Amino acid sequence: MFKLRFSIILLVVSSFFIVSCSGNKESKDSEFLLIGTQGPLTGPIEFYGTQSLGGVNLAVDEINRTGGINGKQVKVVPFDSKGDGKESLLIANTFIASEVCAVIGEPTSGAFLSSRSAYDRHSIPVVSPGATAKGVTDGLDYVFRTTLQDSTGAPYLVDYLIDEKGFNNFGIIINTADSYSVSLGNLFREQLKKRNADIVVEARIFGAPTDVSDELKPLRGKDIDVVIYSGFHPEGAVILKEMDKRGIQGVLVGADGLQQTGLTPLAGDLAVGTIYYSGFSPNADNDMVRSFNQIVSQASLISDVLVAQAYDTANILFSVMKNADITNCSKESRGMIKSGLSKVRNYHGVSGTLSFDSEGSAIKTPFISEIIKSGSGSYSTIVLE
Questions:
Q1: Is the pTM above the cut of 0.85?
Q2: N or C: which end of the chain has fewer CB within 10 A?
Q3: Domain covering 151-278 in this structure, CATH number
Q4: What pLDDT, on a 0 to 100 scale, did the predictor assign at position 193?
Q5: Where does residue 159 rank: exposed (0-12), middle (13-18), buried (19+ CB within 10 A)?
Q6: Structural domain boundaries of the chain?
Q7: Is residue 220 exposed (0-12), middle (13-18) or buried (19+ Cβ within 10 Å)?
């Protein structure tokens, strides 16, 4: 019922937006400041988009309750990309033809890579709350991301596994159908080689398989401490089941694509012990996170890196718009928003302290988390570092 209601709301809002932008655009002095959002709201990775949109909506509700931005209310215009690159670019073109002030873009690297350049060419600020791949903002003035970079997280995690856990024998699994997985796998491999760790075996999967028995044959019978998978939780769950079935040893490790809130519903107890890095932990020991967890729970969301970074992204954007006295979504206003974003330093959000570097990417410290199961049978994580 929730999904049906959400889909109806999305259709109504999007239809209103399309009508208002086709020959009868929103006035630059409209009562609303329009913020576009895009991400997978349906399909195999819809969790990433619905959680991210949920975080944005939390921030919008808060800002509107307190008077909005410079006397104007904020209206979110959400579109469903299904996580597909072609759909992502089509949505970008829709927003380019509109009068949005800025766009909170795709939460996954592959789809963000497909649409980011279009926004930059048309001078529309776009901020991804989740794209982690190397170089996604490089050389693009209007493109930003608030997420932890894989180029920081992957080496950080490898160092932790070697120095703190004493692991040395590694297997790597890469999804060759996903450019993000290939890029992340390369980062893990580079750091393992730098640390002189033993890469026992590498394996390849393709797309969204439901059976990886053939693909994981190279891992059988090998002395492996850690199995690194550089992809997302749907395939991660399939990998865990195959490892269990074939007696393949090793701790599953990866980035926030393997986060607990996505992995445990699919893999259950097999996910316990999985270790991943991310830009947020709901178990961080500070009052801001504890308060945020309560707000998220009241909204029937799950407190994870997706909702947290999207929430911070929206609030950073709103803070910049307030400080720049933005009251419309003109080209001049977009330029002022871009300029303000480029100057963000030491922003204290629920996902930690953030500064944008010269390329528009967030500088953050990773959280390393391990999935656990409590005595009551519920799943959660503990912060290892």
A1: no
A2: N
A3: 3.40.50.2300
A4: 98
A5: middle
A6: 2-148+287-363, 151-278
A7: middle
How many CB atoms neighbour CB 370 within 10 A?
17
pLDDT at 26 (0 to 100)? 43
2-148+287-363 and 151-278 in the same fold: yes
Report the share of the chain in percent with pLDDT over 90.
88
User: Within the chain, what is the greatest distance between any pair of CA atoms?
Assistant: 67
Instruction: Please tell me the distance from the alpha carbon of residue 277 to that of residue 370, in angstroms, as a whole number.
Output: 9
In 3D, which of 170, 231, 234 has the Cα closest to residue 202? 170
Taking the C-alpha atoms of residue 338 and residue 373, their distance in angstroms, rounded to an integer, is 43
Residue 369, beta-bridge partner list: 276, 383
| Alpha carbon distance 262, 57 (integer Å) | 20
Q: What is the mean pLDDT of residues 343-362?
A: 97
**pLDDT digits 0-9 by tens, 163-213:** 999 999 999 999 999 988 999 999 999 999 999 999 999 999 999 999 999
For 2-148+287-363, which CATH class? Answer: alpha beta
